[in-house]
Amino acid sequence: MPRRIVIIGAHAAGVDAASAARKTDRTAEITLITKQKQAGYSPCGIPFVLGRHIPSFDKLIVFPQSYFRMMKLNLMLETTATNIDTKNKTVEIRDKTGKQEKLQYDSLIIATGAYPFVPPIKGREKQGVYVLRTIEDGKKIDQAINNGAKTAIVMGAGLIGIETAVALQERGLRTTVVELLPQILPTMLDADMAKSVQEMLEQKGINIMVSKGVEEFLGTDRVTGIIAGGEQINADLIIAAFGVKPNTELAKKAGIAIGETRGIKTNIRMETNVKDVYAAGDCAECIHMVTQRPALSQLGTTAVRQAKVAGINAAGGYAVFPGVLGSAVTKLFDTEIGVTGLTEFFAKRAGLETITGTIASKTRPEYYPGGVSIKIKLVVEKETERIVGAQIVGGEQVTQRINALSFAIQKQMTVRDLAKADTAYAPPLNETWEPMVLAAEVALRKLR
Amino acid sequence: MPRRIVIIGAHAAGVDAASAARKTDRTAEITLITKQKQAGYSPCGIPFVLGRHIPSFDKLIVFPQSYFRMMKLNLMLETTATNIDTKNKTVEIRDKTGKQEKLQYDSLIIATGAYPFVPPIKGREKQGVYVLRTIEDGKKIDQAINNGAKTAIVMGAGLIGIETAVALQERGLRTTVVELLPQILPTMLDADMAKSVQEMLEQKGINIMVSKGVEEFLGTDRVTGIIAGGEQINADLIIAAFGVKPNTELAKKAGIAIGETRGIKTNIRMETNVKDVYAAGDCAECIHMVTQRPALSQLGTTAVRQAKVAGINAAGGYAVFPGVLGSAVTKLFDTEIGVTGLTEFFAKRAGLETITGTIASKTRPEYYPGGVSIKIKLVVEKETERIVGAQIVGGEQVTQRINALSFAIQKQMTVRDLAKADTAYAPPLNETWEPMVLAAEVALRKLR
């Protein structure tokens, strides 16, 4: 009898898990369940559709129906998993007509993702606050803009909040970002690095209010404004981007262990505490490569990497997940921003003693036209002299510099190694002394 | 009495050695000697001035006279070092007026660079073959173009030859490249990767003849054509780019040991076999990080890294050079090309048993406009599964991918590590599955 693999969720994690499972076991019966109308799309692209860099939401569908057919994956759209019975190895589902059914599984992969949360703010029960998670969410915001919205408030200055604010500004809305913490991008950048991003965004016309909590939603039926830091602000479009939390309700109800990060606990095979039940993606906890402590990564890249491991194991193969460094990048207007490993702030919070090296340099020699400023900050653990984190703001080729520093962290490169690394150069492409190497030099001076 | 440091050579290696020496010993008397009229410029930029990407040759001067004054460096232009006496620690010099002098040194750094060589081809004694090494050389070629040259032959398809051919084509000359070996860029790329570069160059109109030796220089006084592969080709501008050889005559005459690569032998402090005599840059041999064998890198980046180590040691400090991987990149028209570590060919020649992983992928998701094709080849040592080399043709952010793979090689990353590496992604900047990771996957399948 073929192995039955059930996957709850059908986006980055769900589909990549299914693909890996299929490649591992060609005869398995693989079923994906999703509440949504569409499966296999890239939610990371939504802000860039709003900003009109991508022509339509449909383009975001990375895995069309034909892919599921080709890979012989049974996809159930608009279907909700309502219960998991780990003893009898069943998942109860309900389709959009209300019809219920029990699916038997040999292996189960929970890839339920995360949901945008709104803190308990006065007036939270009111209608009309937008979120940005699904294509449906994106379409609603797009509709509001097309209907003539002229002003917007984005609550929360995390990556999604900032990317959305940039998109709205690009669409011509006067946009205000409100953030409770004293800086933007607080989980991605240290305050010193975030400051230059904030200045750039303000120059582009975005109004940014940091250290300001949202105290109240205003409006009668629908929210028409907020009170933040004692000040009333009205807007045509109000978006909650306070952050996302793992969807773990189903898992909890089934007695599957939840970790300290509130994600589903997993071992290095992405298996939960219950045999044959795996978790992957935004709902799953994993181990941070530097701190060796549980972490919630909630990035698309982490999701697909975890999913591949979960899929292989669920299909009877063997694969382990090495942990995360949280490497992430974005492009805001023309400015690239990236991070890998720990920020100085989070390194301190994890108990590490660190020194840092920050430089501002150029991406090309002075004599070659088109070079731009780049700012790199390295975070170095003091005793081992190992690089444990890096942040980059501005410049060119930021993504691949982040990848280079991610490899460096992963392979426990010291700042001394980096200061002597063999780097590549040509006048149109880079400086003779690579800026990452210069940043290592700066850090090294503090260690001597 | 202050330490006397004499440096023969005043470009990348010479000036960086002088700077490092000055930072190590603030009171040293530091003298740089160069035959040339100008010091401290970037020869790597010359083809890009010819191609008009850089507005003038003067722009290439990275270290102006003011820099030498500020750093209190005694710069002697148009001065030739004629003899080194390592016993009495003197260097004999002769200035352009013919005046001779002996300089006493406590430490000597030989940074004499390399010279473009022309093989013993029939008619080699004839005038009018251009080379491309110094600004003067570049100006002569530029002059010939301005004087109406319409056709060009570049002999040699190494990096300098190809960069020059591209520049000539950009200036409107009908350009032919003649290469003895069966591929272009033979020290940089394997034949399979070089093929796609050759096709691109041919599409841009460059005529490329591989497996064709230059048999004769034609013309009465001045060379007006060549015979290559039995065929006669005439051109207005004939450039020799057969390669460069280390300038070691002075060192040899002084009894300083020359290595098997014909570069000056050095230890990890960049010291020669003679105490207090150092070598750096294109004239110096060093150790390849992968093969652990002597290598001649002859790259600007290697020159400055070696020079820094030599400068620190010459000034009484302590620094070691970790070896080279030969990371190099260039941009030919819009195509970026890069290499680090060993090619498959050179790995085999060094006795390594390897497997490779090559992929063609895209630099951005299908749905995001502007993504381009990228081809990555990884070379992996079979027993240790370590990455020992990588080549990239096309794409975006090639330089920093090369740096990432250079770090990977330096830190002995296995192809298994790379297949699970934590990489960064955002729709405008990269694919979810980083192409380097996909190439690792391909290689890995051959190891299972």
Q: Please state the average pLDDT score of chain A.
A: 97
Strand order of the largest sheet of chain A: 3-2-1-7-18
Low-confidence stretches of chain A: none
* Number of DSSP helical runs of chain A: 12
Radius of gyration of chain A: 23 Å
Share in helix of chain A: 25-40%
Concise structural overview:
The structure is a homodimer of 448-residue chains. With 448 residues, the first copy, chain A, is of the alpha/beta class. Helices cover 26% and strands 26% of the residues of chain A.
Structure description:
Two copies of one chain form a homodimer. With 448 residues, chain A is of the alpha/beta class. Chain A folds into three domains: 4-114 and 245-314, FAD/NAD(P)-binding domain, CATH 3.50.50; 118-242, FAD/NAD(P)-binding domain (3-Layer(bba) Sandwich); 328-447, FAD/NAD(P)-binding domain (3-Layer(bba) Sandwich). The first copy, chain A, has twelve helices and 25 strands. In chain A, the strands form seven sheets. The first copy, chain A, has a five-stranded parallel β-sheet with strand order 3-2-1-7-18. In chain A, helix 6 links the parallel strand 11 (174-178) and strand 12 (207-209). In chain A, helix 1 (12-24) runs parallel beside helix 8 (300-314). The N and C termini of chain A lie far apart (65 Å).
